[in-house]
Amino acid sequence: MTNRYSGLKLGVVTPMAKEKDTVEKFVQEVLAVCRLFSFKTIRFYVVLDHASTDGTLDVLKNMGEHIQELKVIFAPDNKNVVDAYKRGYREAITEGVDWILEMDGGFSHKPEDIPKFFETMMKGGYDCVFGSRFCPKGKIENGSVKRTLVSWGGTWAANILLGTKLWDMTSGFELFTRRALSWVLEKGIVSEGPFFQTEIRTFAHKFKITEVPITYDAATQQIHRKSLSDALRNLKRLCFMRLRGQLYT
């Protein structure tokens, strides 16, 4: 690999819950891919809270004793998975990493897709690179038709109502510069459900952004009424922000 990455500090943020059976393999595979790029430093922030009840935390703590890059964060005050993501973001920003890669655990996001993010970010000088299931060569595995339609419909609605222009506005596999993610967080992520990814991608339109195709395994993902209600409420809020000229200022 080229040494263009040798001056950059990388942070990887992944919330986890009940993933005892896959966590060790997942962490090792993600770090193995990231190490190929010879970053100045790599920090893998894994965030857990009381939702993790199967021993995943214990496995990670044991791994942390032997893997220097791994930082295990137990955040009992988290109210939902969005709190876990934001806690991981804050840790990465506070420690001064240059790039923050966000991805789900449990192999719903594939470690083998990671190089696309790094190479695209470096080559194009982007502020944000977003994983897309709906752009050419992107795909969803093991997902129900209903789940796919909801994701596609959410993207369509966001692009129409918010003026965004992405193939996929609801995915959560993405790479940010510290500057871009800090600005997005300062805008205020209000959603307490999956719609927070749409908030992030909407605010990120202030920056130089692009998409790369990913393969997403949706086998464990379900749609809840509470999440849909949260999405509709916050979509309305963002629409009003757009009308008032507040989305990108």
Task: List descriptors.
alpha/beta, Spore Coat Polysaccharide Biosynthesis Protein SpsA, Chain A, globular, single chain, two-stranded parallel sheet, 249 residues, 7-stranded mixed beta sheet, 2 domains
Strand content: 15-25%
CATH superfamily of the largest domain: Spore Coat Polysaccharide Biosynthesis Protein SpsA, Chain A
Estimated radius of gyration: 17 Å
Mean of all residue-level pLDDT scores:
92
Oligomer: single chain
Number of strands: 9
Please list the strands of the largest sheet in the order they lie side by side: 3-2-1-4-7-5-8
Shape: globular
Helix share, percent: 40-55%
How far is the N terminus from the C terminus? 39 Å
What does the main sheet amount to? 7 strands, mixed
Please identify, by name, the CATH architecture of the largest domain: Alpha-Beta Complex
The residue ranges in which pLDDT falls below 50 over 5 or more consecutive positions are: none
Quick recap:
41% of the residues lie in helices and 18% in strands. With 249 residues, it is α/β, with parallel strands linked by helices.
